[in-house]
Amino acid sequence: MKPSLLMRHLETKHPTYTQRNISFFQRLSNSPNLNSCLISTSKANEAAIEASYRISYHIAKSGKNHTIAKNLVFPCIKDAVECMFGEYHVQKIKNIPLSNSTISRRIKDMSIDIEATINERTKKSPFSSIQVDESTDVSDLSILLVIARYLNVNELEENLLLCYPLTKRCTGEDIFNAIQDYFCENEIDWAECCGVCTDGGKSMADCYKGLRGRIKIGAPHVTWSHCCIHRQSLAAKPLPDSLKEVLNQSVKVVNFIKANSTSTRLFKSLFRDMGSLHTTLLLHTEVRWLSRGNVLTRLFELRHEVLMFFEDHPFTLSSKFYESEWLQQLAYLSDIFHK
């Protein structure tokens, strides 16, 4: 381009720079332009948003209150960055949005994305099956859980498909309608479902009015199976009297130690002094039958420590820990319940 044309452009379009020297224009050419500034700012914002999503994921996974991000997570990150990298990098992490409402939105966005991914994989799978369970929580609210098993890239996967509160009744019709509405809303076809697994309750297993019977009406090809965990629980109900007595006595021993806070603290102190692998016993609960194996296994592993504890704290069943037959039955119960 001719120098005269450049001079005319400078004088007409940028008259304020006509008296500037060459070094000024060289510095101006080397300085970042608007596009590079916008790109840099955009990348910084994207990194802050990604960090916000990652933190929200861990908060949701741990089940903590959303306010923990602002009250605990951010101060910890700030102190760590300041100690290791300096004040300059602390200013960058201040751009991470971690308010209570933001964390809630992030978790909701991730939940929607996960649900859409699972539904898409379920629909693309040539076959799938579901496991249905209905139980009541501590607040007397019935929760319906549906777990889907499907084929994804030649690998079987299991994921939670539906978690739905049953606010009124828990009949087979209500359970079926909840599942049917979700399938219709997400365009999941019963023709691709090859099996349904439930417990043996009437609302689930009844061939006419239960969930099993209602599914058979619209999808007669679907096979029904009984949950193996519930079968194990039912099989454990009619225990022989001798084994049942050992189970009840074991529960009484654990309750005697755990019921009193002073005994619990002394028990922990004794275990620490003896170098035991465990420091506490586990409580037994009848509703969650899976806890039986853990309770009995822990009691059997700590039988020597329990016996030493009863030397200073007499109990009516302490003599049982001297009986080899009783200990053998305890070991047997621990084995069958644990498996």
TrEMBL record:
InterPro entries, sorted: RNaseH-like_sf
Name assigned to this protein: Zinc finger BED domain-containing protein 5
The beginning of the lineage is: Eukaryota, Metazoa, Ecdysozoa, Arthropoda, Chelicerata
